[in-house]
Each structure stands twice: as C-alpha cells, then as structure tokens.
C-alpha cells in the first residue's frame, strides 16, 4: 500500500498526515494522530467523507455504478452464481471449488433448524407485530442458545456462529411470516436448496404438498445475491461497532437488523411499495414528483437516491430484469404498480432536480414489486433484506475482529451545550 502525506495547517501549527492508497478507489488521509498533535477532532456527521476501516470484501464506485464482491462484478455473480456460492466468496475471499461448494452447502443446510424452544419467543408477540420487530427479538434471542460459538477470539467458533446465522435466518424469517399470518411453522427440508427451502417454509401448508417453482426459486436466490453486502452501509457499520466491544455475534446481527429497519435504509423497499400504491396511477405521478422536490415537504421518492451511487444502482437494473421475469412466470400482465414505477422512473430520470442531485433508482425501487408478486406482504420486505444481508454483516464482523488495527469504536463530538455551571436549589429557580 503506497503512502504519500498531506499537511494540515491549524493556526501556527502544521501537521503531516499519511495518505494511504488502496487497490482501487479513493485514497484515505490517516487522521489517527490528529487529536494528539492538534487537540482538534475531525467533524463529519453522517460520515460522508470518512473511511471507518480497511476492507477487502466489497468495492463500490458510486460515480460509475460499479459493485464488486471480492473483485467479482455483481452482474456476473447474479448471472452465473447462486447465493450460497456468494456467501462462501464473501466469507472466505475466493469462489469455492465444486468440492468446497458441496461441503459448504451441506454445512449450511444442516444448521437450518432452530432450537425447538425458539418457537416460544414468537408467542409473546401480537400477531399483528411488525415482522421486523419479531426478527430483532428472535435473532437477539439466539445469543442465549449457542454459548459454544461465542468465543470471538476463536476462529473456529466465529465460523460456526457465521454458518449458524446464515443457515437459521431463513428459518426465523419464515417463522416470523407464519406467525404473522396465523399458520403453523414449517420445518426446513434438507433436500431443498437455500431459496427453495425458504419459499417452502413460507408458503407450504400442512394440508397439501408444496411444489417449488424453479423460476421463482431462482429469482428469490438472485434477490438474495443482490442484497448480500454493500460496503460500510449504516447497518453494517452498526454490526461492526457493536462487534468492536466484543459483543455476542448474534446480538450484533440483531443490532444490524434494527438499523436496517429504518425507511432511509432497508425499510425503503416496504416504503417504496407503499408509495407506489399511494400514487396508484400514472396521472398522479407529477403531484408526487413535485412533493419530492419541495423542500418544505418531508416526502421523498422512496427507492430513489443513494449516499454512494450517483449513477444507476447496478443492483436496481438486475432487480428490474428479475421483476419482469417473475411477473412473466406468474402471468401477471400490466401490473399497475410496475406501470407506475416505470413511468415514475422515466419522469424522474428526465427531471432537472433529480439529474442535478444525481438521484437514481436504488435496489429498493423495484424489489417490492417483485416480492409482492412472489406472495410476500410489504411488512416482510425488509425481513428478506435482513435475511440476505446477514452474510454481509457476518463477513464484515469477521473481518473487523481479524483486523490487527481493531479497537473498540468510540467517536468524539463537538460539544455545543452549556459551559460548567453550579447547581441551583429548587427554591431559587
Ligand atoms: C439502501 O448505504 C447503502 O449502501 C444502503 C443500501 C445497502 O445496500 O445497504 O444501498 C440500501 O439503504 C438504499 C437506500 C434506500 N433509501 C431510500 O430509497 C430512501 C430515499 N432516499 C433518501 O432518503 C436518500 O437518498 C438516502 C437516505 C438514500 C441518501 O441520503 P444522503 O446521502 O444523506 O443524501 P441526502 O438525503 O443529503 O440527499 C441529497 C439531496 C438532498 O437535497 P438537498 O438537501 O441537497 O437540497 O438529494 C435530495 C435531498 O433532499 N434527495 C431526495 C431523495 N434522496 C435525496 N429528494 C427526493 N427524493 C429522494 N429519494
């Protein structure tokens, strides 16, 4: 890693700071010694110009709309790979050989059941509880079950915890859905692939055999791939920060789920579909585009814009293609939501406001239409995002723990409150 230097002048002081270059992408200015040398902090709310770590897992070029996982373009992984192959790649850094893939699939498949007592956690929730609330609770509860895989200093235990997380998330997500709709839980079946198993756990009922539609299972698998990891996004940074204190890995993933739930992040897929339903028809789009541009109106086009992508989110293009595949397979013609979405995209991409602010559809814009067509209620959309993102969170958590520079994350602040003052007795207030 090549090193240059930058000089910072503050008053009569000047401080030399190392500039580090990575493999590709922007350089970083190492400010680790800044406070010691200048008694000043940097200030970057929202971390728009701040790199929190070194990483080899995912690279995003926001201007070019490029997304690489361990160097492989998302388009190629989505086209040629399957989700567990991408999981292996994210965790171990290389694409698996046939033998490695077979072993990995076997190990994940044979961790898909959850402890039978887990089912009791669900009964504490109201049936109409949001499935993301259930996921936060139940995934956090996993930390009470697996004490044999929580010594985070032991690479073997970390990998066991990682496999358990990847394997059990579909089972817990499907249980959250079944509980929500009042149907019995469906156990995983070891002769099904990851996506097929998940669809069956969600949509099978005891009264009849469930036959997996291979086209829909492939689409589900590809949707998982598109959501697997995305550099240091808010929920991944949450998992890294929680993990930096040495917290239980399952509890760290529960923290990631909580962060992902927000409508500015993973909750945008649910919010985007609700927005499309609220718009309802093409002739109402101008009204909503005007609201999205109005600084006095908090309304934003959900599924549009991104902190990093200032070009089309490459995942959104693949998602749009998958949407057409799923609707075609299901014989859904002229889906009114798709019609509104495509016209909204066309209008927004030609509108000066969106062009100037470089606002493009992101992964959440089309995903909701696809997931609704697959049979999921909108309240399950972010659960599916969390299911897929678990491998990214756990890969980044492992990388953080293995990083020799790893320390507990503890940001500072710019204090703008009251200066020191003495207590005033209530009789004198
Ligand atoms: C995900 O980080 C990741 O990688 C996330 C993710 C992942 O895989 O982990 O990609 C998944 O979270 C995708 C994003 C999903 N969220 C949404 O679709 C919600 C709608 N989008 C916005 O809330 C917003 O674009 C964010 C939150 C995504 C990004 O916010 P930023 O980077 O803080 O940008 P900003 O809010 O400062 O917006 C810049 C400008 C603002 O106008 P000005 O203050 O400069 O005048 O663009 C405007 C915003 O008002 N703007 C929008 C808009 N998004 C931004 N205006 C209308 N509609 C929008 N959607």
SSE order and pairing:
Blueprint: E1 3-10, E2 13-20, E3 28-29, H1 34-38, E4 58-61, E5 66-69, E6 72-73, H2 74-80, H3 83-92, H4 98-109, H5 119-122, H6 131-141, H7 155-181, H8 194-203, H9 214-226, H10 234-243, H11 249-260, H12 268-279, H13 285-293, H14 314-329, H15 336-350, H16 352-356, H17 363-374, H18 381-402
Antiparallel strand pairs: 1-2, 2-3, 4-5, 5-6
Helix pairs in contact: 2-9, 3-18, 6-7, 6-11, 7-8, 7-18, 8-9, 9-14, 9-18, 10-11, 10-18, 11-18, 12-17, 14-17
GO molecular function: citrate synthase activity
Catalytic activity: oxaloacetate + acetyl-CoA + H2O = citrate + CoA + H(+)
InterPro entries: Citrate_synth-like_lrg_a-sub, Citrate_synth-like_sm_a-sub, Citrate_synthase, Citrate_synthase_AS, Citrate_synthase_bac-typ, Citrate_synthase_sf, Citrate_synthase_typ-I
CATH architecture of the largest domain: Orthogonal Bundle
What sort of overall outline do the alpha carbons produce when their principal axes are compared?
globular
In CATH terms, what is the fold-level topology of the largest domain? Citrate Synthase, domain 1
Give the % helix.
40-55%
**CA gyration radius, whole angstroms:** 23 Å
Query: What's the total helix number?
Result: 18
Active site: 306, 364
Pathway: Carbohydrate metabolism; tricarboxylic acid cycle; isocitrate from oxaloacetate: step 1/2
GO cellular component, one term: cytoplasm
Keywords: Acyltransferase, Transferase, Tricarboxylic acid cycle
């Amino acid at each position: 890693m090549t090193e240059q230097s930058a000089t910072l002048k503050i008053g009569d002081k000047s401080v030399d700071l190392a500039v580090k270059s990575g493999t590709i992408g922007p350089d970083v200015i190492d400010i680790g010694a800044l406070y010691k040398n200048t008694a000043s902090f940097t200030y970057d709310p929202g971390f728009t110009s701040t790199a929190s770590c070194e990483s080899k897992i995912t690279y995003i070029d926001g201007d070019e709309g490029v997304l690489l996982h361990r160097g492989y373009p998302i388009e190629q992984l989505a086209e040629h790979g399957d989700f567990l192959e991408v999981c292996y790649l994210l965790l171990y850094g290389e694409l698996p050989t046939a033998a490695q893939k077979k072993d990995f699939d076997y190990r994940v498949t044979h961790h898909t059941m959850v402890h039978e007592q887990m089912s009791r956690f669900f009964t504490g929730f109201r049936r109409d509880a949001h499935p993301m609330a259930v996921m936060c609770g139940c995934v956090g509860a996993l930390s009470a079950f697996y004490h044999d895989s929580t010594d985070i200093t032991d690479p073997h235990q970390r990998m066991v915890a990682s496999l358990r997380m990847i394997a059990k998330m579909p089972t817990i997500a499907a249980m959250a859905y079944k509980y929500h709709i009042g149907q019995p839980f469906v156990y995983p079946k070891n002769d099904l692939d990851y996506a097929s198993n998940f669809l069956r756990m969600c949509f099978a009922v005891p009264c009849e055999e469930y036959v997996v539609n291979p086209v829909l299972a492939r689409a589900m698998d590809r949707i998982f791939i598109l959501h697997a990891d995305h550099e240091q996004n808010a929920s991944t940074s949450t998992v890294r920060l929680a993990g930096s204190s040495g917290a239980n890995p399952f509890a760290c993933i529960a923290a990631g789920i909580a962060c992902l739930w927000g409508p500015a992040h993973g909750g945008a897929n649910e919010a985007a579909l609700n927005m499309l339903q609220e718009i309802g028809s093409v002739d109402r789009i101008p009204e909503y585009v005007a609201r999205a541009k109005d600084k006095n109106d908090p309304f934003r086009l959900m599924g549009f814009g991104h902190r990093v992508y200032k070009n089309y989110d490459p995942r959104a293009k693949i998602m749009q293609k998958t949407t057409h595949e799923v609707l075609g397979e299901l014989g859904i013609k002229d889906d009114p939501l798709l019609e509104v979405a495509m016209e909204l995209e066309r209008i927004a991409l030609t509108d000066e406001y969106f062009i100037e602010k470089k606002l493009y559809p992101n992964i959440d814009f089309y995903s909701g239409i696809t997931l609704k067509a697959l049979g999921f209620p909108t309240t399950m959309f972010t659960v599916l995002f969390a299911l897929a993102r678990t491998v990214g969170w756990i890969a980044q958590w492992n990388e953080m723990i293995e990083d020799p520079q790893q320390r507990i994350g503890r940001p500072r602040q710019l204090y703008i409150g009251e200066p020191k003052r003495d207590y005033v007795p209530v009789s004198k207030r």
